[in-house]
Amino acid sequence: MRDIKLEIKLQKALDNGHNVWVIGDIHGFNETLRTLVSNLALEKGDYVVLLGDLIDRGPNSYDVVQYVKTSPNIVTVKGNHEKMMIELFSLPRLERPDVKLATWMYNGGRATAISYINAFTDEVGNEYTELLDQAINQDKLWMNRLPSQIILDKWRLVHAGYDPEVDLDCQTDSEMLHIRKPFHTATAPIDKDRTVIFGHTPTAGLPGHSSLFWGKVWFSPVLLDSGRPAAIGIDTCVFHNLDVPAVLTAYNLQDNSIIQQTRVEAWNKSIIKQTNELKEE
Fold it and tell me: Which residue range(s) make up the domain with 198?
């Protein structure tokens, strides 16, 4: 799904000399996102495009979603984690969990559900269930309307990538929100005129990278006729708790500059456990 009006707006911003920054997977790290956006020093006419996976794993997915929804100069495409939330997150389903829900919970959904519940629970443990239910349904409706890709004159912005064996006009959410290796190892450009900027896969795991490349942007060795890389990976992985850099990356479509923010939130086993627990009554 595309949003043509949004694409026209973003392309016009670029044509008029404004900055359009693209940020990789956030995964619930609201403070890191807010700090990075502040460091971009946005001016009137500038935009930020997020590559999906706003939610799951990190400490406050609820706040990330509200921040993005209420920021007029921040837009986002849909990620596979938004797709899981759309399909699986509801209060009745939490009360009667099944295998599909358990899969989402295991993949970070528990932290998202807890962040929503805690946002509607007061200090003494009273849950405002009706307001919580409304918030969940409103946010799922918003997510469901998000585009799966953004196509500009020189760029394609997408969460995961494209299947090189499928015609570009026939790609679905199955490819654009989930694909990994066939896209990463493509030996020819997906789009001969446009560089694909994507997230989804931590860049340390992309071809030619290794554990030495944690926090580094990935540039495809495959080039367009213009000499630009055919693809650029910017999920520099902010959510892990390894002893390696944890950073959120912003890439500027106007001048190809990069600004990174080291994770702001403390993130160790104790805090991860706390993130996945309800407020105590």
Answer: 4-265
Kindly report the three-state secondary structure assignment for every residue of 76-112: ECCCHHHHHHHHHCCHHHHHCCCHHHHHHHHHHHHHH
pTM: 0.96
Number of domains in the chain: 1
Give the tens place of pLDDT for each residue, 33-51: 999 999 999 999 999 999 9
Bridge partners for 247 per DSSP? 262
- The CATH code of the domain that includes 168 is 3.60.21.10
Residue ranges of the chain with pLDDT lower than 50?
Answer: 281
Residue 241, C-beta contacts closer than 8 angstroms, at least 6 positions apart: 267, 268, 269, 272
Round to whole Å and give the CA distance between 234 and 198: 6
Phi, psi of 223 (to 5 degrees): -115, 150
Query: In which element (H, E) is residue 130 found?
Result: helix 129-144
